[in-house]
Amino acid sequence: MISAQAQLQAERLSNGLAALAEPHRLLILRQLRRGPRTAGYLSRALGIAPSLASHHLAALVEAGLVTRRRVGSFVCYTAQTVKVRDLHQRLGVLAGATGPASDHAAEAAVDPC
Q1: CB within 8 Å of 67: residues ≥ 6 apart
Q2: NCBIfam families, from UniProt (predicted)?
Q3: In what order do the strands lie in the sheet with 74-79?
Q4: Pure H helices in 21-80
Q5: CATH of the domain spanning 4-110
Q6: How confident is the model at residue 6 (pLDDT cuts 50, 70, 90)?
Q7: Is the whole model's pTM more than 0.90, yes or no?
Q8: How far, in Å, are 1, 36, 65, 81, 93 from residue 100 at the CA level?
Q9: Neighbour-count burial of 87, counting CB atoms closer than 10 A to its CB (0-12 exposed, 13-18 middle, 19+ buried)
Q10: pLDDT score, position 31
Q11: Is 70 helix (H, G, I), strand (E, B) or coil?
């Protein structure tokens, strides 16, 4: 049986991946690696409507991968690189590429597959 902690981790990973499951959001994060940007800057850089950039930024903010901060009349968006790296690391653990061993040994004893 899967532990409550494993279930919670899977849900968090799923939410983070869902936020990234759109090409424009990945491109926004790529732009934000260079530093804080406004929605207007990002919409021009990606060649998309400002409303679409704002929509994608809202999803990234909700997932905790981006923060926003008001500077005068502008809103600046910043990538939360620690959270993005954590998401990457958790995906690696799930895939068995990195991190501690999971419950595979216990599962293998029960499941013949």
Answers
A1: 61, 77, 78, 80
A2: HTH_metalloreg
A3: 37-38, 74-79, 66-71
A4: 23-32, 39-46, 50-62
A5: 1.10.10.10
A6: confident
A7: no
A8: 19, 34, 24, 22, 7
A9: buried
A10: 96
A11: strand
